[in-house]
């Protein structure tokens, strides 16, 4: 919103115009000149603002789900929240990663390519310590990981990928599979150095340990699903899901409703005098022949033709025909 000039500022401006200190033509020229914005092709912004917002929402959900999952699994205080979502060249991401860290490389099948989850060693070892019965104290021995420790951490990371898959279900159904665990980012080459990636950074606390978790998503890998990340389409999908849920709920309630099911043995007309004279043992002649099927009504609608019989000492009927388009009186 433009700044509003005070009355004194307006008077000063009019005074400058009248005295010639400010040239009105120059002001108009500056207004009509095109504003030039510097664009760095090495930092090409290939993700739109809508797509970045959608990615942010997805990973905010991922942070909530992962907090719940790790809290239950590690039985300690866990806090995970999205700190930032940035798009930058892959080379810049690799330079920002510490020389010795935990890099979890995984393939998001059916997409062609790889993602990477970088985890601060303090966080990784705090979780490892909890899983081995410790207090979750942070310590760093990234250069001396044993095969058993790598195996345990791999199993933990696979659990985290299940949460990642669940967070992305509204957009794409991934089947993420762990491919490798690296400790030196210089040995990790996901894409070309100038390829644009989106990096989601999570502020993480596990017990007394704190640090960052970063997820790197290369543009070339998720390019095929980018159109589905637009806010308009994402909201349509959500509305469609809500409508389907409402229909399922309505169907469930309708199926649970109770309606009267009546089988008529037949009908007849009698006078009041005949009705009053009825007694035990009297016979009433109906309009229904004994060798013809009976009509079953649901509410007031004739729905079935049935055959009377018995089932386990109880009266029962067997449906022989489904009626359609009949009037109530039939």
Automatic annotation (TrEMBL):
Topology within the bilayer: Peripheral membrane protein
The keyword Cell membrane belongs to this UniProt entry's keyword annotation: yes
Domain Flagellar motor switch protein FliN-like C-terminal residues, every copy: 254-323
A Pfam family per the record: FliMN_C
Broad class of where this protein is predominantly found: membrane
Compartments (UniProt record): Cell membrane; Bacterial flagellum basal body
Protein name: Flagellar motor switch protein FliM
Organism: Bacillus daqingensis
Gene: fliM
């Amino acid at each position: 919103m433009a700044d509003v000039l005070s009355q004194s500022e307006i008077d000063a401006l009019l005074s400058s115009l009248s005295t010639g200190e400010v040239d009105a033509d120059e002001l108009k020229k500056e207004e009509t000149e095109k504003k030039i914005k510097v664009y760095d092709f090495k930092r090409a912004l290939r993700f739109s603002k809508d797509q970045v917002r959608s990615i942010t929402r997805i990973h905010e959900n991922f942070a909530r789900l992962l907090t719940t999952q790790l809290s239950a699994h590690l039985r300690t205080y866990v806090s995970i929240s999205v700190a930032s979502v940035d798009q930058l060249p892959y080379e810049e991401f690799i330079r920002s990663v510490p020389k010795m860290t935990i890099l979890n490389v995984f393939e998001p099948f059916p997409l062609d390519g790889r993602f990477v989850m970088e985890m601060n060693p303090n966080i990784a070892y705090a979780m490892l310590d909890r899983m081995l019965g410790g207090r979750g104290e942070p310590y760093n021995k990234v250069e001396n990981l044993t095969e058993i420790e790598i195996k345990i951490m791999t199993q933990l990371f696979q659990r985290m990928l299940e949460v990642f898959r669940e967070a992305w279900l509204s957009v794409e159904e991934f089947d993420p599979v762990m491919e490798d665990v690296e400790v030196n980012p210089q040995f990790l080459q996901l894409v070309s150095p100038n390829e644009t990636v989106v990096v989601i950074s999570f502020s993480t606390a596990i017990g007394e340990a704190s640090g960052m978790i970063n997820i790197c998503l290369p543009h070339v890998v998720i390019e095929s699903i980018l159109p589905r990340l637009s806010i308009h389409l994402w909201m349509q999908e959500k509305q469609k899901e809500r409508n389907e849920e409402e229909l399922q709920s309505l169907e469930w309630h309708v199926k649970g409703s109770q309606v009267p099911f009546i089988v008529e043995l037949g009908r007849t007309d009698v006078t009041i005098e005949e009705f009053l004279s009825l007694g035990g043992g009297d016979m009433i002649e109906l309009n229904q022949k004994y060798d013809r099927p009976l009509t079953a009504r649901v509410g007031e609608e004739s729905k079935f033709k049935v055959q009377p019989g018995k089932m386990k000492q109880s009266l029962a009927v067997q449906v022989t025909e489904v009626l359609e388009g009949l009037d109530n009186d039939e």
